[in-house]
């Protein structure tokens, strides 16, 4: 072959080429080219898997992380690499337009309706009008977890009985097990009304539905009702079986929680923690003002009544009228919103407290007898 002739070269090995999305001379970027439907799908998955309200709230403030997540999760399996040319836009109308668009998409009902139980679990320390508004928007969008959380806060903390019960009813109608059990407790106690408003049969029916959905406290409550013949025909063997089943489920749930697995009880635990902290704060404020228990300032919408909290430390429910909750039949010092709370507190704390109270009462009676 002549030296002047160019030798043919073998074609280079095929390489994965990067797909370049150019700015075309304007201020657009990859996020601008994503359809709204794709962004809504990504944000809905983010809301459904959020571990805290901050995950959803931060999405409403910035779009950079979510846009990157959208590109990664949606386009990485295709092996497509997007490279945006030009310098990053620092300020201006384009960035403001993107932020507005992303905020609108992040607060779209399709996103808020998918909010997880952890996403709406607002801590008491973070409670504000903005948090209240966020929960209202999630509830209006159809989030059952938000309806339950906000319903409990309004019913027991804010004193808005009607709206709280309506929100709990909406969540229960959607098959939310903690909301079904919450309404059962309301029916058992006649909360928000008088003694004549108690409906044990309705409470048992709601408990049965929640227990069928796998709610452990409802299963325990139903077992006690069957044992006692309260609201249903007495069936002690069936009641004991349900109590054993509830104890097994509680142990399994505890093991899953220790291994990082969370079930539907997370929403109930979060709202209970919120209510406990709420009333602890109000008691501290009342003590600082020098108010005695039962005087005004001990809580919101008291009406000057001596209202008690459920003695189970992890419950947080408060009476809506005097002598609403059941008392310990031995010492009379402990109050419980349900049989399930009474049984749990007996195992965890009240067994020793009640024994001490009996001993003190016996000692006082003996001292009175000696004096006379």
From TrEMBL:
Source species taxonomy: Eukaryota, Viridiplantae, Streptophyta, Embryophyta, Tracheophyta
Domain of life: Eukaryota
Short name of any one Pfam family annotated for the protein: TPR_27
PANTHER family: MYND DOMAIN-CONTAINING, MYND FINGER FAMILY PROTEIN, EXPRESSED
Keywords noted in UniProt: Membrane, Metal-binding, Transmembrane, Transmembrane helix, Zinc, Zinc-finger
Chain ranges passing through the membrane: 60-83
Species the sequence originates in: Oryza sativa subsp. japonica
MYND-type domain mapped to chain residues: 312-354
Protein name according to UniProt: Os11g0488900 protein
GO molecular function: zinc ion binding
């Amino acid at each position: 072959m002549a030296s002047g002739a160019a030798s043919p070269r073998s074609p280079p090995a095929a390489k994965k080429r990067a797909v370049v999305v150019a700015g075309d001379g304007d201020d657009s970027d990859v996020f601008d080219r994503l359809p709204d439907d794709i962004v809504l799908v990504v944000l809905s998955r983010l809301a459904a898997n959020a571990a805290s309200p901050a995950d959803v709230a931060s999405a409403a403030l910035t779009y950079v992380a979510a846009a990157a997540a959208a590109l990664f999760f949606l386009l990485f399996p295709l092996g497509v690499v997007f490279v945006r040319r030009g310098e990053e836009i620092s300020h201006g109308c384009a960035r403001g337009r993107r932020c507005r668009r992303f905020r609108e998409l992040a607060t779209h009902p399709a996103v808020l309706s998918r909010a997880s139980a952890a996403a709406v679990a607002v801590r008491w320390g973070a409670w504000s009008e903005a948090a209240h508004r966020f929960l209202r928007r999630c509830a209006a969008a159809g989030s059952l977890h938000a309806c339950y959380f906000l319903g409990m806060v309004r019913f027991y903390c804010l004193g808005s009985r009607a709206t709280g019960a309506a929100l709990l009813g909406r969540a229960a109608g959607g098959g939310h097990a903690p909301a079904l059990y919450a309404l059962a407790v309301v029916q058992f106690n006649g909360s928000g009304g008088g003694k004549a408003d108690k409906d044990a049969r309705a409470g048992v029916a709601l408990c049965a539905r929640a227990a069928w959905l796998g709610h452990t406290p409802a299963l325990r409550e139903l077992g006690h009702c069957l044992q006692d013949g309260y609201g249903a025909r007495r069936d002690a063997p069936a009641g004991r079986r349900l109590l054993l089943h509830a104890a097994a489920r509680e142990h399994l749930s505890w093991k899953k929680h220790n291994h990082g697995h969370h079930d539907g009880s997370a929403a109930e635990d979060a709202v209970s923690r919120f209510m406990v902290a709420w009333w602890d704060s109000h008691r501290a404020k009342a003590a600082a003002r020098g108010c005695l228990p039962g005087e005004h300032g001990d809580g919101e919408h008291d009406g000057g009544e001596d209202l008690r909290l459920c003695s189970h430390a992890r419950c947080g429910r408060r009476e809506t009228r005097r002598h609403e909750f059941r008392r310990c039949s031995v010492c009379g010092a402990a109050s419980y919103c349900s049989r399930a709370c009474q049984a749990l507190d007996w195992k965890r704390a009240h067994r020793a407290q009640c024994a001490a109270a009996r001993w003190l009462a016996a000692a006082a009676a003996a001292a009175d007898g000696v004096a006379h």
